């Protein structure tokens, strides 16, 4: 039984929780906008001229779409499914394909799904949509140049939380998927126990109570099969994200969290577009181990 009153930061004041989890304020408006501009510019550059299949509807119920990038003529490629961040209420697939070219050059395809943002969608619905995108890759990936037996999932911030919600057990059967559909995972700066969100500004949009937050927390859910995973976080991340990553990595059997030096909450994941970076090499190792 989960103790609903015992969660990370439960003894902190609202102001202290804001310091721990309000990474946009920590960055400041100028640096935040510079990061967002990099997301857009590097994504546009990465997919310019890249073979792929953009704009595919993966979920008939919501009409949400995904982009497939970096397919080749060498048969179905292993696929990295990237789930964007934005605290479940911002960003889209258009800013989230910055790793596609670097992965393409290593024989790996990239899939970037959209999901309906809060408050238009509940977090339960967002999780369902993300899981539906994994189901689409497994069922239809081969006809689009993807190997459904080599799916690696990753994401940043809220996307790290959503990555965790694809790693846990108990949901795959509902979608007609094998328990090991996700073969490996690499969440960045994720939230794995989201009960603290009930007391920060984000809850104006996601509208969670503690009980619902607990039911949507990967750290508190049955793990099922533990896929290989690397839990990454930035050295200069929000303290809440650092603490959650450090706690989730050993819980998942992934050893210690990978702390990326000289990076903050927003630019750490951009290292996936740099073939020389440690995060990119780590992801490459995960994919090639399959």
UniProtKB/TrEMBL annotation:
Q: Which UniProt keywords apply?
A: Hydrolase
Q: Which GO terms describe its molecular function?
A: hydrolase activity
Protein origin, superkingdom: Bacteria
According to the entry, every stretch annotated as the BD-FAE-like domain falls at 74-173
Q: What is this protein called?
A: Alpha/beta hydrolase family protein
């Amino acid at each position: 039984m989960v103790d609903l009153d015992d969660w990370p930061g439960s003894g902190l004041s609202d102001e202290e929780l804001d310091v721990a989890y309000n990474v946009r304020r920590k960055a400041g408006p100028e640096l935040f906008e510079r990061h967002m501009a990099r997301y857009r510019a590097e994504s546009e550059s990465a997919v310019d001229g890249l073979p792929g299949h953009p704009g595919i509807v993966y979920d008939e119920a919501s009409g949400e779409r995904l982009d497939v990038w970096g397919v080749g003529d060498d048969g179905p490629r292993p696929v990295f499914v990237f789930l964007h961040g934005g605290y479940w209420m911002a960003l889209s697939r258009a800013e989230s394909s910055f790793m596609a070219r670097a992965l393409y050059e290593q024989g790996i395809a990239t899939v970037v799904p959209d999901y309906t943002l809060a408050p238009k969608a509940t977090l339960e619905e967002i999780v369902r949509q993300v899981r539906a995108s994994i189901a689409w890759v497994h069922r239809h990936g081969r006809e689009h140049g993807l190997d459904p037996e080599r799916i690696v999932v990753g994401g940043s911030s809220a996307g790290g939380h959503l990555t965790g919600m694809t790693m846990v057990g108990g949901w795959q059967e509902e979608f007609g998927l094998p328990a090991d559909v996700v073969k490996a995972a690499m969440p960045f700066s994720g939230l794995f126990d989201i009960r603290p969100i009930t007391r920060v500004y984000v809850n104006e949009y996601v509208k969670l109570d503690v009980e619902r937050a607990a039911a949507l927390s990967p750290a508190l859910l049955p793990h099922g099969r533990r896929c290989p995973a690397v839990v990454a976080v930035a050295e200069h991340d929000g303290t809440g994200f650092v603490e959650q990553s450090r706690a989730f990595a050993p819980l998942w059997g992934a050893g210690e969290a990978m702390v990326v030096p000289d990076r903050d909450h927003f630019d750490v994941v951009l290292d996936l577009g740099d073939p020389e970076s440690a995060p990119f090499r780590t992801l490459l190792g995960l994919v090639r181990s399959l």
